[in-house]
Amino acid sequence: MSVRELVVLGTASQVPTRHRNHNGYLLRWDGEGILFDPGEGTQRQMLRAGVAAHDLNRICVTHFHGDHSLGLAGVIQRINLDKVPHPVTAHYPRSGQRFFDRLRYATAYRETVDLAQDPVSADGVIADTGVYTLEAALLSHPVESYGYRLVEPDGRRMLPERLAAHGIKGPDVGRLQREGVLGGVSLDDVSEIRRGQRFAFVMDTRLCDGVYTLADGCDMLVIESTFLEEDSELAAEHGHLTAAQAARVALDCGVRHLVLTHFSQRYTEPDDFERQARDAGFEGELTVAHDLLRVPLPKRR
Q1: Closest CA to 231 of 223, 222, 242, 239
Q2: Residue 242 has what DSSP assignment?
Q3: Contact 35/147 with Cβ under 8 angstroms?
């Protein structure tokens, strides 16, 4: 059965708290798993969340600050310890290659898995599986940082009433789908576009073009909201967003489900993030993330 959901492994920013682990997010997309920003402690959080190394097909690192990448060493070694039977691909900023190498070989272990390195150095499509494309866009942070976006190709939804009106049924439906035309009836006559789903992951950044490029038309946007609005100057200084800024991005880009995360240790009331996001005008589905939360992607449009 197809499963599309976000598994939240950690939601803290620079400093973990009693209730928030460092970053870590797994996107389950049908039979694949994409792990984003494995911070320190991710391997243990995977265990608590019921996520296995075998579930991982890709690892996407936005940038090489410790709260987004120190868990790489443990995750990579666990992939090898468990002898994951399929290739795993790692994406990360090319400018951080030396950090990736240090984390990959932080200690001695036996390599048993084909871990492909596919660093990112420019905006655009970085992987095309045929089932989805994975895109990257440059963000604005003190170190080079990229956000990621998964896009499913558009499909077709057959319309039973139109099929019936043209007397098309049984095997002829499949034939029409394959050939595009049947007895003068075109596929356009009896179907409509079914828009593919879109998911974006935006971490440490100020507002910039890349944020809007990634968020545009997304069914789910997972985005940092490190600060509340009263600390907006701090946010800009350190290259971060506020909850209100994240919500306005979601509103402007037509996001259906907004997931706020990456919270500064200075805040203890999650409701404040939801309140400020709503005050900014976002009326769609809104989740203030907490550790070990599972968030299903919205149903298809």
Answers
A1: 242
A2: B
A3: no
Reduce the secondary structure of 14-69 to three states and give it as a string.
CCCCCCCCCCEEEEEECCEEEEECCCCCHHHHHHHHCCCHHHCCEEECCCCCHHHH
Using alpha carbons, select from 9, 85, 112 the residue that is nearest to residue 51.
Answer: 9
Tell me if the pTM is above 0.90. yes
Cβ 89 vs Cβ 60: under 8 Å = no
Query: Which class for 98: exposed (0-12), middle (13-18), buried (19 or more C-beta within 10 A)?
Result: exposed
Catalytic residue among 30, 37, 55, 67: 67
Exposed (0-12), middle (13-18) or buried (19+): which is 114, by Cβ within 10 Å? exposed
* DSSP 8-state code for residue 230: G
93 close to 63: Cβ distance less than 8 angstroms: yes
272 touches 234 (CB < 8 A)? no
CA atoms within 13 A on the CB side of 23: 33
Comparing 154-163, 215-224, 229-238, 251-260, the range with the smallest average pLDDT is 154-163
User: 164 to each of 81, 96, 167, how far by Cα in Å?
Assistant: 56, 58, 5
DSSP string, 131-165: S-EEEEEE--SSS--EEEEEEPPPEEEE-HHHHHH
* Average pLDDT of span 108-122: 96
The answer to whether 67 is a known catalytic residue is yes
Mean pLDDT, range 198-221, rounded to an integer: 98
Grouping H, G, I as helix, E, B as strand and the rest as coil, residue 279 is helix
pLDDT tens column, 175-205: 888 988 988 888 888 888 889 999 999 999 9
